[in-house]
Amino acid sequence: MSKAHEVEALCEEATPGQIAQAALRLGCRSVAFTYNDPVAWAEYALDTARECRISGLRTVAVTAGYITPEARPEFFSGMDAANVDLKAFTERFYHKLCFAHLQPVLDTLLYLKRETEVWFEITTLVIPGENDSPDEIARMCDWIAENLGVDVPLHLSAFHPAFKLMDHPATPAETLQRARRQALERGLRYVYTGNVVDPAGQTTWCPGCGQALIERDWYELGAWRLEENRCAACGQEIAGRFEGPPGGWGRRRIPIRV
Ligand SMILES: [Zn+2]
User: Cα of 185 to ligand 1 centre, how many Å?
Assistant: First the structure.
């Protein structure tokens, strides 16, 4: 998923308890396990998740969803939320670019939907020529709507050349916007573009009245028009786990030492 460039990052050390304490000290509401897939270091992720929950923090797994049926229950029992990469909707892509298979990822999504209370969302990195055809996007959205329901948020992210895929161009914004329109036309209610400048594509819109409910521009938040989990204008229930009002953290990042 990513390659760490900074040696210091590889030399840092933190116990599960230290991570929970640091998150509490900084006023975080949740801790996300990401960059390398936490499925690959599940023991540490689960130990940390346990410490986080004891401290009242929520836990989020950012994962490719490539995990055996035997390991799924234990892994996801530690998580309040998950963002699952659905990297493409063809076995060809999973075989050629991931040395893996599509079906186990679909099985993970079905498991989350049918057998857990985990709040989950899907992210697809749209790569020109590999997984961006209108036909593939349509089939993927139809599968999501039919099997997971229209309330599962779908994030369509732009690819930028990196690591071993330097020979592919960056994803044009128009491709993401076309894919987003397709997903909305096929009934998905919460579809977002990512890694591009597209405030309208990153805003949460009310499926009932069309009001902008949570305005987003990258990491900056604008208007907040939710009352608990309902549209403040028309009362429509909005799928998700919300805790307003939003803060003003924006795109700042602070590296920390625990
Ligand atoms: Zn509304």
Answer: 19
Q: Rounded to the nearest whole angstrom, what is the distance from the C-alpha of residue 117 to the centroid of ligand 1?
A: 25
Quote the ligand 1 centre to 123 CA distance (angstroms): 25
Element (H, E) at 182: helix 173-185
pTM of the model: 0.95
Q: Report CA(150)–ligand 1 centroid distance (Å).
A: 16
Percent of the chain with pLDDT over 90: 84
In DSSP notation, 218-237 reads TTEEEEE-EETTEETTT--B
Taking the centre of ligand 1 as the mean of its atom positions, its distance from the CA of residue 213, in whole angstroms, is 8
Distance (angstroms) between ligand 1 centre and the Cα of 252 equals 31
The pairing of strands 30-33 and 212-217 is: unpaired
Separation of alpha carbons 231 and 214, rounded Å? 10
Domain locations in the chain? 7-201, 203-258
pLDDT beyond 90 at 3: no
What local confidence, expressed as pLDDT, does residue 7 receive?
65
What is the structure's pLDDT at 258? 81
Q: Does the bond joining 73 to the residue before it have cis omega, within 30 degrees of 0?
A: no
Instruction: Quote the ligand 1 centre to 239 CA distance (angstroms).
Output: 12
Q: Which residues contact 75 (CB under 8 A, 6 or more apart)?
A: 38, 39, 42, 45, 46, 61, 67
pLDDT at position 4, please? 56
Domain 7-201 = CATH 3.40.140.10: no
88-119 pLDDT, tens digit each: 999 999 999 999 999 999 999 999 999 999 99
Distance (Å, whole) CA 102 – CA 66: 9
